[in-house]
Design goal:
2 helices; mainly alpha
Length: 69
Amino acid sequence: LPSLPPLGISPSRGEIGQSSNDDLLQIVRRVQALGMFLDTEDGKNLLAGTKRAANILAAEEKKKTTSAE
């Protein structure tokens, strides 16, 4: 069997086309589900952890640039 190109890639033109997620209703439902999850305690913890990790990485990057000067 020949391998298929990734979704959204036209095999004849080799360019990005419409993805398989072009169903607007499906996208809306996913966004709603994500919003509902983020309103839960687990979702809030996930957001807090992500923000902490981003702040730690930003601080480390800042240390690298100031120590290199």
